[in-house]
Amino acid sequence: MGRCEILVLVTVFSVFVSAQIKFKGPNEPKEKRTDLLMRILSYKDLENPPNYDSDKITVIEADLNVNSFDSINEASMDFKISVMLHLRWINTLITNQFTSVKSTLDYVELDATKMGRLWVPDLYFPNEKRSSFFNVMTDNKMMRFHRNGTIDYTTRLALTLSCPMNLERFPFDKQTCSIKIESFGYTTNSIQLRWSNISENAVALNQTSLPQFEVTGRNYSHRERTHRFRGNFSYLQADFHLERNIGYYMIQMYIPSLLIVLLSWVSFWLNVNSVPARISLGVLSVLTITTQSSAVNASLPRVSYIKAIDIWMTTCLVFVFAALIEFSMANVLSRNSSSEKEFLLSIFRITKIGRIEKEKNGNDITMGLRHRRKSQTDAEKKDLIVNEFGNINLKPEAKEKTEEAALQQNKGLVYASYLDVTCRVLFPTIFAIFNIIYWVYFWKLTVN
Question: Which of 80, 146, 202, 285 could form a disulfide with 195 if both were Cys (CB 3.0 to 4.6 A apart)?
């Protein structure tokens, strides 16, 4: 055989081998994967739980990946959360399917469109209010079958879960919100739920800082719960420990109310006779504190116990109301008490004289008033004297009465001023003592 013939044979053999590889190479694994998927989907025993015909318990391991805390609502006492739930269990029938088609693949996956007839754990969330699957662009769930019989199931969920809260220390409170997972139809004799032992942390949290809270810790456990008619069921619980950030409430609640209380004390430096200014300042301070207190409670549930924010707002309301009452007392003290008595006595005398004149002469009450005015005018004229230079002066007795009235009025103003000066010191001192007790007490509770 010549050299040319050998070259021709080698070339033909190479072309033949290349053609065979090109023809069978890409299709061979594809045919095995397709056959395996069709075999699994057509196997009816996979529609039932593993070990359904035996007494063996199926253990389902769970991993929870928390993508985000969307919001925590104190009024409805719930929180919204987005999670990725991963479940794993073993079904030995899967190994037989890999062997029957002589597949060398380690695993094969299914998307949501092919999972309709396959069994998945019938889990639900006992503290759930609302829930939904993510479905953009398709339902976010998948299954993966491994050669050793392990089945992985993963799905994404948006949950609104109940979170009972104790708001006695609000806004210095710490809350614990939980995610509970339980089998709905299968008792502990068939299915037991466990957190995964493979991962270092079965509950992963991608977000630790929330607008109003900080996630200070988390723990998880598996337990059993007995229902009256259904039996014993295995369930998982993941607890998230939350600590409220007080920065928002300092800016929006505490500092404004503190400034309003300080503003109400400005009336102590105003003149006692500045009635419109002091009344306006006191009334506006009371209304502002009342409105602010209502705004705080509008976002909170109507609980029967007293919260920490209620103690603060009530104390501020008491201080601004006390400042308004102090002005009323100062205004009363500033008046001439003797003049008030004379005014009341004159009203009583006028009423009495008018009644007597009407009964005696049958005339209208105005006759008595005119007679009273005339007698008062005559008495005033008797108190007047004309000196040698033609000047008109009061008699010494009348002058003493006038000086006494002025002295009484000055004495009332002095008492009112003393009251204002005392309140300038007393109110800030008491409020400072309250602040020290309030902040030290709740700071210790927060630290402990």
Answer: 202
Cis peptide before 301 (omega within 30 of 0): no
Beta-sheet strands, E only, within 42-173: 58-73, 78-90, 107-110, 123-124, 128-133, 141-146, 150-162
Cα distances from 230 to residues 48, 130, 192, 226, 278, in angstroms, run 20, 23, 15, 8, 70
CB 232 within 8 A of CB 187: yes
Q: Return the structure tokens found at 187.
A: 């008792």
Strand-pair category, 392-394 with 191-195: unpaired
pLDDT tens digit sequence for 201-222: 778 887 777 888 888 888 888 8
Tell me the C-alpha distance between 135 and 141, whole Å. 9
Find where tokens 């037989």 sit: 96
From residue 376, alpha-carbon distances to 368, 372, 391 in Å are 12, 6, 22
Cβ within 8 Å of residue 175, ≥6 positions away? 72, 163, 165, 166, 213, 241, 242, 244
**Per-residue pLDDT tens digits for 316-337:** 999 999 999 999 888 888 875 5
Q: DSSP assignment, residue 128? A: E
Measured in residues, the chain has a length of 448
How confident is the model at residue 19, as a pLDDT? 46
Tokens of residue 60, six digits: 């389902």
Closest CA to 205 of 219, 195, 193, 194: 219
pLDDT at 152 over 90: yes
Q: Identify the residue with better confidence: 272 or 234.
A: 234
* Whole-number pLDDT of residue 131: 86
362's torsion region: left (phi>0), alpha (psi -120 to 50) or beta?
left
How many Cβ atoms from other residues are within 10 Å of residue 261's Cβ?
Answer: 21
Amino acid identity at 18: S
27 — pLDDT class (breaks 50, 70, 90): very low
- CB under 8 Å to 162, separation ≥6 — which residues? 77, 78, 127, 128, 129
Which residues are within 8 A (CB) of 154 and not within 5 positions of it... i.e. 6 or more apart?
Answer: 84, 85, 86, 87, 141, 142, 143
Helical residues (DSSP H) of 121-244, grouped into ranges: none
**pTM of the predicted model, to two decimals?**
0.71
